[in-house]
C-alpha cells in the first residue's frame, strides 16, 4: 500500500479545486498539496461543460460572496488568460427584456449593477439593434465587462502552475480524522495523509462530506443544462441574455458566442436522473434514490413544479425550445439549431427546499467543505481559491 504525505489534500480536479491548489502554493510557498481527481484529466464535469462566460457580477446580491468574488474575479480572470495565452475575449453582453412584465426586473438589475460597481448602459430598441441587429427587445442593458474564456484550459493551467501532485483516476473512498489531520483511502489503494482536507468535489461534494463523517445539511440536486449550436452564427455578434427570474438560480436560455467563433444556445435546466447524467438515457438508481429520500427534493418539486414542467417540455420538444430562443432571436428556426453537449449543475438544496443561491462553504475539524459553487464559480475561481486556501491553511495548523 502506497502512502503519500502532504500538508493539504484537495478532493476534486475542477477549476475550484485546482485554483485552491494554485492559491496554496502562492499564499504559503512550500506547502505540499495533493489533488485527487476520479476522472482521467481535469475539468471533466461542470468546469468543462458550461457556456464559457466570464460573468460581470451584475446579477448578484450586493455583499454576497458571489458579488464579492465575481466583480474582481472577472478582471483577474481576463488578466490570467492574457498572461498564460489562454483563449478569451471581453465581448460585453446584452440583457434583453422582451415583455413589459420584465421591465421592472431589468431596471432592478441596473440598480444592482451600479451597487456592485459595474458600469451598465440602458438601451432602447434602436440601440439594441446597434449591438445586435437580429435581436428583438423592448429594452436592454449593455454590460461591458462580460467576456468569454476557455475554462477547461484555465483549470489545466492552474493545475500545472500549482506544483501540486495531481492523482488522476483516483477516487476518495474512505476518510478518517487522525491526530495529525486526515487520512484518505483511495480507489487505487494509495493512502494520502494530510494535515487538512479540502472538499471541492462538485457533484459529489455532499457524499464526500458524509464520507468524512460530517453532516452537510444539504443535498446535491443535479440539473442538466442542454445546449444547441446555432448553424447561422452570423445572427449573433456577442452574448445575449433574457431577464432572469429572481426566484430561480438559473439565467434562462441565452445566446453565447464562444472563443472558437460558434454560438451556443441554451441551457435549459431539467432534473437529471444521474449526477453525471448528460442525457435522458443516463439513469443511476443510487442518485435517484438519494434525491427521493431527501425532504428538500419534494419541497422544491411542490414549489417549482410549473417552472420545472416548462423546462422539461423544452427539453423534450425542439419546437418549444426554439420558441424560447425566438423571443430573443425571431429569425431562428428549428433547422438553425443542432444538438450540442450538455452540462450538469451541482445545485445544493437545503432540507427546507431552499435552492442555495450563494457559495456555501462549511468547516469541520481539519476540513473545509465547498458545498455549493454555482455560476460564477469559474469566473471567480481565482479569488474563491484564495478564500478556500486561507481556510485550509488555518485548518492545517496544529
CATH class label of the largest domain: Alpha Beta
Q: Treating each run of at least 4 consecutive H or I residues as one helix, how many helices?
A: 10
According to DSSP, the number of beta strands is 22
Shape: globular
> How many domains is the backbone divided into?
3
Report strand %: 25-35%
CATH architecture of the largest domain: 3-Layer(bba) Sandwich
The chain-level structural class is: alpha+beta
Question: What is the gyration radius calculated from CA atoms?
Answer: 21 Å
CATH superfamily of the largest domain: FAD/NAD(P)-binding domain
> How far is it from the N-terminal to the C-terminal residue, by CA?
27 Å
Q: What is the residue-mean pLDDT, rounded to a whole number?
A: 95
Q: What percentage of residues falls in helices of 4 or more residues?
A: 25-40%
At the fold tier of CATH, the topology name of the largest domain is FAD/NAD(P)-binding domain
The unreliable regions are: none
Largest sheet: 8 strands, mixed
Give structural notes.
This protein is α+β, with helices and mostly antiparallel strands. It folds into three domains: about 210 residues, FAD/NAD(P)-binding domain; about 50 residues, no CATH class; about 120 residues, no CATH class. It contains ten helices and 22 strands. Strands 1, 2, 9, 10, 11, 12, 21 and 22 form an eight-stranded mixed sheet that branches. An eight-stranded mixed sheet has the order 6-7-5-15-16-17-14-19, sandwiched between helices. A hairpin with a 2-residue loop joins β21 and β22. α1 runs parallel beside α5. The longest helix is centred in the last third of the chain and has 22 residues. It starts with a strand and ends with a helix. The model has no long low-confidence stretch (mean pLDDT about 95).
Amino acid at each position: 500500500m502506497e502512502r503519500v504525505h502532504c500538508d493539504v489534500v484537495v478532493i476534486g480536479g475542477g477549476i475550484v479545486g485546482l485554483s485552491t491548489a494554485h492559491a496554496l502554493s502562492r499564499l504559503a510557498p512550500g506547502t505540499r498539496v495533493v489533488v485527487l481527481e476520479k476522472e482521467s484529466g481535469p475539468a471533466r464535469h461542470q468546469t468543462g461543460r458550461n457556456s464559457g462566460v466570464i460573468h460581470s457580477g451584475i446579477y448578484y446580491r450586493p455583499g454576497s460572496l458571489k458579488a464579492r468574488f465575481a466583480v474582481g474575479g472577472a478582471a483577474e480572470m481576463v488578466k490570467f488568460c492574457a498572461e498564460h495565452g489562454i483563449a478569451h475575449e471581453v465581448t460585453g453582453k446584452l440583457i434583453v427584456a422582451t415583455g413589459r412584465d420584465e421591465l421592472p426586473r431589468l431596471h432592478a438589475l441596473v440598480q444592482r449593477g451600479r451597487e456592485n460597481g459595474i458600469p451598465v448602459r440602458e438601451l432602447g430598441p434602436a440601440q439594441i439593434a446597434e449591438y445586435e441587429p437580429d435581436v428583438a427587445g423592448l429594452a436592454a442593458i449593455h454590460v461591458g465587462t462580460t467576456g468569454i474564456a476557455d475554462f477547461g484550459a484555465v483549470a489545466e493551467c492552474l493545475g500545472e502552475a500549482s506544483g501540486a501532485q495531481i492523482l488522476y483516476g483516483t477516487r476518495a473512498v474512505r476518510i478518517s480524522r487522525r491526530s495529525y489531520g486526515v487520512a484518505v483511502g483511495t480507489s487505487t489503494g494509495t493512502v494520502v495523509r494530510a494535515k487538512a482536507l479540502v472538499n471541492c468535489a462538485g457533484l459529489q461534494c455532499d457524499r464526500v462530506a458524509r464520507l468524512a463523517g460530517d453532516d452537510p445539511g444539504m443535498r446535491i440536486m443535479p440539473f442538466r443544462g442542454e445546449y444547441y449550436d446555432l448553424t447561422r452564427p452570423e445572427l449573433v455578434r456577442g452574448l445575449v441574455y433574457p431577464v432572469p427570474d429572481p426566484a430561480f438560480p438559473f439565467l434562462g436560455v441565452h445566446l453565447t458566442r464562444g472563443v472558437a467563433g460558434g454560438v451556443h444556445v441554451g441551457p435549459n435546466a431539467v432534473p437529471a436522473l444521474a449526477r453525471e447524467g448528460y442525457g435522458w438515457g443516463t439513469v443511476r438508481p443510487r442518485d435517484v434514490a438519494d434525491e427521493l429520500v431527501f425532504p428538500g427534493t419534494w419541497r422544491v418539486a411542490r414549489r417549482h413544479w410549473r417552472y420545472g414542467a416548462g423546462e422539461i417540455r423544452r427539453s423534450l420538444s425542439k419546437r418549444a425550445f426554439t420558441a424560447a430562443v425566438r423571443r430573443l432571436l425571431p429569425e431562428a428556426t428549428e433547422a438553425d439549431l443542432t444538438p450540442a453537449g450538455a452540462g450538469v449543475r451541482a445545485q445544493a438544496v437545503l432540507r427546507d427546499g431552499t435552492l442555495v443561491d450563494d457559495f456555501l462553504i462549511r468547516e469541520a475539524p481539519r476540513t473545509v467543505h465547498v458545498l455549493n459553487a454555482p455560476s460564477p464559480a469559474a469566473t471567480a475561481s481565482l479569488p474563491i481559491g484564495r478564500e478556500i486556501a486561507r481556510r485550509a491553511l488555518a485548518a492545517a495548523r496544529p
